[in-house]
Design a protein that fits this description.
2 copies of one chain form a homodimer. Chain A is an alpha/beta fold. Chain A has 2 domains: 4-123 and 316-330, NAD(P)-binding Rossmann-like Domain (Rossmann fold), CATH 3.40.50; 127-311, Dihydrodipicolinate Reductase, domain 2. The first copy, chain A, contains 9 helices and 16 strands. A 6-stranded parallel sheet of chain A has the order 5-2-1-6-7-8, with helices on both faces. A 6-stranded mixed sheet of chain A has the order 12-9-13-16-15-14. In chain A, helix 4 (125-138) crosses helix 7 (252-261). The first copy, chain A, starts with a strand and ends with a helix. Chains A and B meet through strand 9, helix 5, strand 11, strand 12 and strand 13 of A and strand 9, helix 5, strand 11, strand 12 and strand 13 of B.
């Protein structure tokens, strides 16, 4: 079996570390694994690997580079990566809306991978989770709109998110002060209705992603999404409350049937027995859990849905490795 | 100035205790304050007061009884209270949908107090907060529907809610086990998409209150509300994400103007400066904070709104005392 040379750009961060773990878990056919990070991290040991500096020289000879860095890093290295000939599967939002860059959730639009020109984008975490949850409905009747409120875990802000939450909890217990650095305000015992800065008509950058990226992933150019993104004091797994409208009515029973059969989804929908998706129960795994499916009482073509998924895994690292699995079929 | 004999039924609970505080804060003209609770609590001292047993004998001579107990207690004593001649302002949900019982938010429908026949209901906490936030819009163009997701604090479950949250946080820090008693599942570092049991088409009792009670409070018999109620690890103050549709379009600018002038509301809506309602900043006060006002991207007659309020105060105790202030004008 052919094996591939894989780089991880931003290997020392939370998503980069998870990518390493998931490549191993899924027995990805790796020949060489090269950990790429800033000059400061170069030389650092992670397991059996030594981190090397991200630079044009060190991209050479790689088949695929998994991007786990922020937009500025992705933008800085995009030309060098292209020149290296490696396929770049990027988790930043830098290229997600570029029409030349496929935006992929492998359970939804795997065929779009074939259109790539060297760069493929991994979608926003809340978008991956929400689209995976609702796509089975979309395949029966197009989704016209979604009203969404999110409950996003602190690890969505990287490894420093959980540290800040625990530091705050600790400081509060001791009656000490703790000045927030990662989040805009204290997140312990609080919720913060802001993720990202303002982008469009009072919506934040994070709030616009589900509409803009969802359109590309689900091939719904007219999809309308009104999103309110909220940070909650949860360590891992994002939860999303979705009220969606399909062109034709889909019954609750049909929706349950479709979602329980959908790739990447697990239906957990039994209120009487207190069973529904929750962040605690959906962390450290790859499925999107879906439940609380109800007819929308405001619109006969609407459905209410609640879903949770591990945003570091399915929302980022796992989805990227799944894209890599599609890419190597073409290599 | 005339003074009144006031009873608090369920005086030892979280809401009962808050009512005592608020009667004092607002200089309510109290002649006698009688704390009523179960036989077990009778004789207990609270400040300068001695708790007496809730029973027909002890309701005599009271002008107003503020109910801070659960439905079963309210139902058990309703006949005795009526026989006593006291006006019963009840915080339980037992009589809220009874057409003979006015359901009041003093900033919204104070005139309904005049219709009472001895019993007035205090609405559900999330309903008080949400209706106070949106009513100014309703006064300009009727609200047709609302899609709502809530972020409800643990103190909404009474004084044992915060205890359980802190016990769990503590147990987790020590690596110990803690079996949830108040909530269905661990609430520390988690969110639970269930408040109440199933009531209607998969919606919980809590989720149906905003529609059923909102219709009576805002005089909107056709109001449609799709609600998802979620418990979050916040100590105090509920937050609510509302996407509402009015009969005629209301602009964001107009909505801001209306809400900033509305009784009981405080507009906090400046994303650039990271200012918006949050539970931490809205606890231990009586206003409903409103912000993140945006045009709904899915419907031109829609608006997205985020609001927070202290559910023990405006959501329960303060609202009840405000109703009592209306009642004594008629006595």
């Amino acid at each position: 079996m052919k094996k591939f040379n894989i780089g991880i750009l931003g290997a020392t961060g939370a998503v980069g570390q998870e990518m390493m773990k998931i490549l191993a878990e899924r027995d990805f056919p790796v020949n060489e694994l090269r950990l790429l990070a800033s000059k400061n991290s170069a030389g650092k040991r992670i397991g059996d690997y030594t981190v090397c500096e991200a630079c044009a020289e060190n991209f050479k000879g790689l088949d695929i580079i998994l991007g786990a860095a922020e937009n500025d890093i992705a933008e800085r290295f995009i030309d060098d990566i292209k020149a290296s000939g490696a396929v770049f599967i990027d988790n930043s939002s830098a290229f997600r809306l570029d029409p030349d860059v496929p935006l992929i959730v492998p359970e939804i639009n795997p065929e779009d991978v074939k259109k790539h020109k060297g760069v493929i984008s991994n979608p926003n975490c809340t978008t991956v989770i929400s689209c995976t949850a609702v796509n089975a409905l979309n395949s029966v009747s197009p989704i016209e709109s979604m009203v969404v409120s999110s409950y996003q875990a602190v690890s969505g802000a990287g490894a420093n998110g959980p540290k800040e939450l625990f530091n705050e909890v600790d400081a509060l217990a001791k009656g000490e002060e703790y000045a927030p650095r990662v989040f805009q305000h204290q997140i312990a015992y609080n919720v913060i209705p802001q993720i990202g800065g303002e982008q469009f008509m009072g919506y934040t950058s994070e709030e616009m992603k589900l509409q803009n990226e969802g359109r590309r992933i689900m091939h719904l150019p007219e999809l309308k999404v009104s999103c309110t993104c909220v940070r909650v004091p949860v360590v891992r797994s994002h939860s999303v409350s979705i009220c969606l409208k399909t062109r034709e009515k889909i019954s609750v029973e049909k929706a349950r049937e479709l979602i329980s059969a959908a790739a990447g989804c697990k239906l957990v929908d039994d209120l009487d027995n207190q069973l529904y998706p929750m962040p605690l129960a959906t962390s450290n795994q790859d499925l999107v859990f879906v439940g609380r499916i109800r007819e929308d009482l405001t619109d006969e073509r609407g459905l209410n849905i609640w879903c949770c998924g591990d945003q570091v895994r399915k929302g980022a690292a796992t989805n990227a490795v799944q894209i890599a699995e599609l890419v190597i079929k073409e290599l």
